[in-house]
Design a protein that fits this description.
This protein has 13 helices and 7 strands. The chain is an alpha/beta fold.
Length: 385
């Protein structure tokens, strides 16, 4: 049987062990342990100060690079987008300052911002997909041509409304107008004796047919109005049938993780459809958009053929964005910036100014003048002959 003395001895042993541990900890182990901790703390403090200094230096370099960019931007961008009619498309959540800055750089490059489409948050809401789909089908010039997800269809319908009519479309309309004019002249020649009542009836039918055409909603401005009245976007300027180039500005921040796939798919589909309908297209955003989970990163993973830039938002990045757009005027675009999959920070070599009929004539004249001078120099007698 365990008696009280056994318990007393056990308690004394425990307290004795604690006392010995405290003595050892405060005497024999104190100095080595403290020295080690102090040394590690000093190393960490030094690393922190070095990183802080590097960060400050990088920020100063960025500020200097932006100042330098502002100083040389006019020369670098001159005529790179000469006579291009550009529509700026701001995705839901896009930074308004970035949209304005990119518009200014476009104009600095000789382009014209003919309008802006500012999309509302409702456009990408999970519950809006069906409405977007139905609206695209209702407003499309040919609903049978629409395919893919709702945002493929919306991009096709809106892109068709934004795009400058092609020469083929213009010629077709002109031919139809000529046929109508010829037909009316022949009809007048054959039917001079028609009564006024018949003419009034024909005029009534013509007016009803015209009203029917307007009611179909295929008018470009009506398409934009339908999306605006549906609470999906705000239209600024006069972009209908005016665009031959598009800049899409990505959201300033990535979508929440649970919505990333859906939102990015919607935006990449929409941008690709605009590119197919209008022509040269740029998807521009900040560094976050080019990282995993960003819309530009997804567009690059899908190997979209329009240009992408993930450094927009600072003067240097905005100039790179315009150069990337200019680089895509002759065909498909490339990815530029700092994210995964880019071909470089900016196009190399830089795209040159847009050639016009006048510049080509001047170039030919200069070449001819140079050729004439060379011929004169060959025929001139050499000194001493």
């Amino acid at each position: 049987m365990i008696d009280f003395r056994y318990h007393l001895v056990s308690i004394v042993a425990v307290f004795l062990a604690l006392t010995v541990g405290l003595v050892l900890g405060t005497t024999m182990l104190q100095d080595p342990l403290l020295n080690t901790l102090q040394s590690e703390t000093a190393d960490l403090r030094g690393q922190s100060e070095e990183l802080r200094a590097e960060r400050d230096d990088s920020e100063q370099l960025n500020i200097g690079a932006d100042q330098f960019t502002d100083a040389v931007a006019a020369d670098v961008l001159e005529d790179r987008l000469l006579d291009r009619e550009v529509v700026l498309v701001a995705a839901p959540g896009a930074d308004e300052e970035v949209v304005r800055s990119l518009g200014g750089r476009v104009e600095e490059a000789g382009g014209s911002v003919v309008g802006r489409l500012l999309f509302e948050e409702a456009f990408l809401d999970s519950g809006s997909a069906t409405f977007v789909d139905e609206l695209a089908l209702q407003t499309a010039a040919d609903p049978g041509d629409l395919s893919g997800n709702p945002y493929d269809k919306a991009g096709t319908a809106l892109g068709h409304a934004l795009a400058v009519p092609s020469e083929a479309d213009t010629e077709t309309e002109g031919a139809e107008g000529s046929e109508d004019a010829g037909g009316s002249e022949d009809s007048e020649g054959r039917d001079e004796e028609r009564t006024d009542d018949s003419e009034d009836g024909a005029e009534s039918r013509s007016q009803s047919e015209g009203d029917g055409d307007r009611d179909t909603g295929h008018d470009a401005a009506a398409v934009l109005s339908a999306f605006s009245e549906g609470g999906l976007l705000t239209v600024e300027g006069s972009p209908a049938e005016s665009a031959d180039t598009v800049v899409v500005v990505a959201p300033a921040a990535n979508a929440p993780e649970e919505d990333q796939e859906r939102v990015n798919t919607a935006l990449t589909s929409f941008t690709a459809a605009l590119h197919q309908q209008v022509g040269p297209t740029l998807l521009a955003g900040g560094a976050d958009s080019g990282r995993p989970g960003g819309v530009i990163a997804q567009a690059r993973a899908q190997e979209r053929t329009h240009a992408t830039v993930d450094v927009a938002g600072r003067p240097t990045g905005d100039v790179v964005a315009v150069l990337a757009l200019a680089d895509s005027l002759g065909g498909s675009g490339s990815p530029y910036g700092i994210g995964e999959g880019v071909v470089g920070f900016l196009p190399d070599p830089l795209p040159g100014p847009v050639e016009t009929a006048e510049t080509e004539a001047d170039t030919d004249a200069e070449a001819a003048a140079g050729s004439g001078n060379d011929e004169a120099r060959r025929k001139a007698p050499r000194s001493g002959e």
